[in-house]
Amino acid sequence: xxNPFKEINWKPDEAAISxxxxxxxxxxxxxxxxxxxVGIFRNPFDEAVATPLVVFLAGFFIYALSRLGADVCKPVxxxxxxxxxxxxxxxxxxxxxxFFYLVFAPFALLARWTTGRDPLALKxxxxxxxxxxxxxxxxxxxxxxxxx
Length: 148
What we know:
The chain contains 3 helices and no strands. By secondary structure, it is an all-alpha fold. The two termini are 39 Å apart.
């Protein structure tokens, strides 16, 4: 499994914190805009503004902390990236689990049922004395020099 904790910059400098603040401001602004658009269609205007405004202000707060300096925003940066890495591990494993059991396993079962093919030779045959399979004879050593 890939370790996302290796990818985290555990000692960010001013440039990394500044980029983090800008990213949070833009990301939270986009999320707030989408929440606002969804809220307009579902609720009256007053209720549709409250949640997007809180989300946007959270992004602006992180941006303001990043502008104050790396020492001020570093704890928020580290907690955010730690939680993101934990979430990434869970989501990646969940997606692999679902993809395997919802795509590969049904496909393999369907292929086995329709064709009857046994590529690993797992079927037991009581008539056989041995399950040994002879290896193919080795190629002549001169053939390795004639690749084409």
